[in-house]
Amino acid sequence: MMMLSARGPAPTTDAHLAASLSVAVRRLAVSESAHPRLWGGFGLSINLRKANSVGQNLYMMGSSEKSENTHDILTASVNSWYSEVKDFDNRSVREYKFEFTTGHYSQVVWGDTTHVGCGLVQYKDSGFYTTMVACNYSPAGNLIGGTVYPTL
């Protein structure tokens, strides 16, 4: 098992800001306390010291080749979550209604979220590499009846 670190602000914030700025202008900070701690193949433990409410998106991919590019992995995960926009009902922007097919997208663009922390792990099992990404969002989004992001 090899741990890849995604502690720097650039990969985590760039992809999330690009996604969130497509719908609303906001500030998003990288939070050390929101970074998940991952152990490949052995479960998931999340370190959340100061967050009152936390949302989370998970992403998994597999390949016969090992990926060393943390930025590309994190960007692929955020792009995957954002791709759910095609199924998002715009009537939910002002009064959110949860849908399983768009919950990742709505968490990425949730307007009240101010901090994001992401972690990833890559491990090899039977000649196959599995990469898991977890991003924590504080405060949490996807609140039924809440406003996803401000509109004009």
UniProtKB/TrEMBL annotation:
Residues 7-145 form the SCP domain. It is found in: Secreted. Its main location: secreted. It comes from the Eukaryota. SMART domains: SCP (SM00198). Keywords: Disulfide bond, Secreted. GO terms for cellular component: extracellular region. Transmembrane segments: none annotated. InterPro entries: Allrgn_V5/Tpx1_CS, CAP_dom, CAP_sf, CRISP-related, V5_allergen-like. PANTHER family: CYSTEINE-RICH SECRETORY PROTEIN-RELATED (PTHR10334). This is SCP domain-containing protein. It comes from Microctonus hyperodae. The lineage of its organism: Eukaryota, Metazoa, Ecdysozoa, Arthropoda, Hexapoda.
